[in-house]
Amino acid sequence: MYVRTAPTQRTQPLSDPIPDAPADPLLARLATLCEGRGLAALGARLGELADLVSGDLSACEAELAAIAPHLPPDRRASLVARAGGHLLDLGGKRLRPLCVALAARLGDRGFDSAARALAVAVELVHGATLLHDDVVDLGETRRGAPAARMVYGNAAAIFAGDWLLIDALRRVRRARVPGTLDRLLDVIDEMIFAESVQLERRGRVDADRGAWLRIVEGKTAALFRWAMWAGGRAGGLDEDACAALERFGLHLGVAFQAIDDVLDLDGDPQATGKSLGGDLREGKMTHPLVVALETEPTLAPLVAAIARGEAGGEALGAALERTGALEATRALARARAGEALAALGALPRGRARDALATVAQAAVERDR
Amino acid sequence: MYVRTAPTQRTQPLSDPIPDAPADPLLARLATLCEGRGLAALGARLGELADLVSGDLSACEAELAAIAPHLPPDRRASLVARAGGHLLDLGGKRLRPLCVALAARLGDRGFDSAARALAVAVELVHGATLLHDDVVDLGETRRGAPAARMVYGNAAAIFAGDWLLIDALRRVRRARVPGTLDRLLDVIDEMIFAESVQLERRGRVDADRGAWLRIVEGKTAALFRWAMWAGGRAGGLDEDACAALERFGLHLGVAFQAIDDVLDLDGDPQATGKSLGGDLREGKMTHPLVVALETEPTLAPLVAAIARGEAGGEALGAALERTGALEATRALARARAGEALAALGALPRGRARDALATVAQAAVERDR
User: Fold this and answer.
1) I need a surface site. Which of A24, A61, A98, A280 has the fewest CB within 10 A?
2) More confidently predicted of B26 and B158
3) Rounded to whole angstroms, how far apart are CA atoms B228 and B223?
4) What is the spatial distance between Cα A168 and Cα A189, in angstroms, rounded to a whole number?
5) How far apart are CA A329 and CA A288, in angstroms?
6) Which residues of B touch A139 (CB under 8 A)?
7) What residue spans define the domains of chain A?
8) Domain A25-363 = CATH 1.10.600.10
């Protein structure tokens, strides 16, 4: 770990799931984590969340698992199908489909087949960006396993990303939920230009909170925004409710990325499936680094040396602790989760709304 | 040139355009070529074609040229916009927009703003594939200039391809011509899996006409099919007429690729903007090679050595001549152009139909 003593005492999660853990693996992991960290109330609420959506998530999972195997025979064995299937088989948190499902369940129509198509599509768009990102960043592992490009090559990974993207758009198109395709195209456009900003800033060591936020809003939060809005539309909610859901998605996305940034420097690689300091070595200024550099500009040469691979990350631990950078980032995540909760005020009360509140809280308490 | 003596005598095109050459650069070049090769009748018909569509093509060109410069200021200077704009600025034959324009002009509505949007979109999809292809094939030049990836890097080229693709889909969406978006998504899916077949066969030296055709139908002809079908729909033609246009596009696409394959081995790099034998060095079995290997299987080690860069292409010239491989490929192109002409029989007579016949003939007589 980069951080020798974490600024807040953190208990390790229990290694065995608690006896009445929810069936869904994500929710089970989150519940386990909450128990381990003394967040029993949140653990109990995650159990309720699981009751509500474990069927929805299983349906999504089954559909995602079937995509590559159900291709026509001449395509099933293709490099593109295998590279795309490889990524999908690695699983993931499926947080974006969960957002679609809960948003849809707020409305009268609930999580019907159209909503399920949107939930699968949002995970496919996310997968497409991961495939292209790993090529761009020369990423070697993904979700604790070799990245698709390491197994099938860069070319197959690029085309597999194209495939998942087009497949997602076709699903959204077929679902015929008004406005969802137009908005998804707009969101993907935002994501691409945020990738461009990140690319241009690669290796630049500076404390620019504005740039960090622009990248995160485009790369991460935009797709969460769409997941919430599209789920709400599929569920039959009106414009105002969907706008509130979109605000929830924006804040949840920023909070989620802030915690990702913390985990890059202070996570357990076994849990996250990513190597520690990976973002920094890819030349990306995560939020804790922005805070640390803002507080102590003299850290720049050290950060630059680590980014260039010319220094190990150990020396950074003390600096992150001294500057309170990780805690400041966690505080940002908590504040954004609070904004997300506030956005829920405009929405119909009920189990789905309570579950979204739980998601926002769990997103900032997670360790993976 | 790989071919020391071409199997059919070919006169060099005149270096100066003929006095009454059409204003459009593509048509001017084609007309020049026809004059130079004693195809005066075709040259004259290209002049008529220019009268009909030079305004349409200029409108497309203006719209393509405006895409990157008209982005919002924060995006205009981005790496993605510059990489995408670089490719668009290099020009190209704009044959796919020409297909949309002529197909639209067969109908009552003609080349209106919706048809123009589709014409621009088809060129953007083509551009997206070129950007990704150059990354995959490590292509260094494109249209006689450094490829976008050489100027802006692989990462920017990948995201720029994503951008042009999404931009194309947004344009098709906004044009709201029934069926065009669904079909374009289907066609892009076909293109991706054809890329996958090509990737899997890379470096494999064998005489498989079926594989060649599968790749070409997916990679090249599918988008021509869409251009014709979508143009016809925008122009207001009925299903039967659009189906005939789609057949025209299929055959034109195959003919076009066959000539591309000839030019890879027997073209003038100054004219084509590509280095001679480039496809072979990228491990791609072009049609003349398939024919040559079918006729003389003992050529395989030589072809493999050239593909690996361990032998120059000179020795191949005699083999291509001996086996009549280039002429057989030209004959295939002519036969497919004939099929394309036959498909026109079902369509309304008039200048647009005559112009499409001219395009089919010019596609197989071109030298670039």
Assistant:
1) A61
2) B158
3) 9
4) 15
5) 6
6) none
7) 25-363
8) yes
In this structure, what token pair is assigned to residue A132? Answer: 């292209």
Please check whether residue B320 touches A, CB under 8 A.
no
Is A217 an interface residue toward B (CB < 8 Å)? no
Q: How many CB atoms lie within 10 A of CB A209?
A: 13
Q: Is the pLDDT reported for residue A108 higher than 70?
A: yes
- How is residue B78 annotated by DSSP? S
Least CB-CB distance to B169: which of A78, A169, A195?
A169
* Contacts with A135 (C-beta within 8 Å, 6 or more apart), sequence order: A149, A154, A157, A158, A161, B154, B155, B158
Closest CA to A199 of B67, B68, B159: B159
ipTM for this prediction: 0.88
Q: Hey, what amino acid is at B54?
A: S
Superfamily, domain B25-365: Farnesyl Diphosphate Synthase (1.10.600.10)
Separation of alpha carbons B7 and B265, rounded Å: 13
Q: Provide the residue count of chain B.
A: 368
Share of chain A above pLDDT 90, in %: 71
The DSSP string of B283-309 is: T---HHHHHHHHH-GGGHHHHHHHHTT
A258-274 pLDDT, tens digit per residue, is: 999 999 998 887 777 77
Spatial separation of the C-alpha atoms in residues A242 and B266, rounded to whole Å: 60
CA distance A126 to A140: 18
State the pLDDT confidence band at A244, using cuts at 50, 70 and 90.
very high
* Burial classification of residue A174, based on how many CB atoms lie within 10 Å of its CB (0-12 exposed, 13-18 middle, 19 or more buried): middle
Mean pLDDT, rounded, for A131-156: 92
CA-to-CA dists, residue B310 to B281, B293, B301, B304, B359, angstroms: 10, 19, 11, 9, 39
Q: How many angstroms away from the CA of B25 is the closest CA of chain A?
A: 33
Pick from B186, B193, B199: CB nearest A155: B199
Which pTM does this prediction carry?
A: 0.89
> What pLDDT is recorded for position A26?
58
Which chain B residues have a beta carbon less than 8 Å from that of A159? 132, 136, 192, 195-196, 199
pLDDT (tens digit per residue) in A313-323: 788 989 999 99
Q: Any idea what DSSP says for residue B356?
A: H
Decide: B173 and A189 in contact? Cβ < 8 Å.
no
Whether the per-residue pLDDT at B12 is higher than 90: the answer is no
Q: How far is A297 from chain B (nearest CA, A)?
A: 27
Residue ranges of A 107-146 with Cβ closer than 8 A to chain B: 132, 135-136
Contact A78 B200 (CB under 8 A): yes
